[in-house]
Amino acid sequence: MLEQILKDRLVEAATEYLHQKVSGQGIRPASGYPSLPDLSLNFTIDKILQMDRVGVTLTPNGALYPNATTAGLFIVHPESSYFAIGSIGDDQLADYAMRTGRSLDEARKWLGANVK
């Protein structure tokens, strides 16, 4: 357990270091976190980056493996800030499902606890 905690902290520190080197300011949201709750975005990132080339795979639920791995976005703008997406209503769920080409049930699955 101590080894996994150390790996997680090192990957987080490396990500923050890279963020500072490329931008110096801004945010770095990652899928599955409050400001970007849809973990299925990792599948899109994987299609673009072909993460298996560096030994990273995805679980069926979109989690990265090995666990001490990170994937996200760098948003470089001095006024960018983190925000949390609260619970969404049925109308917003329907709109999100339509925009992503998913059924309501599939959209609800990927958004998880954020749906009322």
Describe the fold and architecture:
With 116 residues, the chain is mostly helical. It folds into two domains: 2-84, no CATH class; 86-116, no CATH class. The protein has four helices and two strands; from the N terminus they run H-H-E-E-H-H. It has helices spanning 2-22, 41-49, 90-100, 104-111, and strands spanning 57-58, 64-65. Strands 1-2 form a two-stranded antiparallel sheet. Strand 1 and strand 2 (64-65) form a beta hairpin. Helix 3 (90-100) packs across helix 4. The longest helix has 21 residues, at 2-22. The mean pLDDT is 88.
Give descriptors for this structure.
single chain, mainly alpha, globular
Report the average pLDDT across residues. Answer: 88
* Overall radius of gyration: 16 Å
Query: What portion of residues belong to β-strands?
Result: under 5%
Cα separation of the termini: 35 Å
Number of helices: 4
Strand order of the largest sheet: 1-2
Percent helix, as a range, is 40-55%
Structural class by sheet pairing and helices: mainly alpha
Can you write the helix and strand succession as a string? HHEEHH
> In terms of per-residue confidence, which ranges show pLDDT below 50 for 5 or more consecutive residues?
none
- The domain count comes to 2
The beta-strand count equals 2
Task: Please render the helix and strand layout as text.
Layout: H1 2-22, H2 41-49, E1 57-58, E2 64-65, H3 90-100, H4 104-111
Antiparallel strand pairs: 1-2
Question: What is the compact description of this entry?
Answer:
With 116 residues, the chain is mostly helical. The protein has helices spanning 2-22, 41-49, 90-100, 104-111; strands at residues 57-58, 64-65. It has a two-stranded antiparallel ribbon with strand order 1-2.
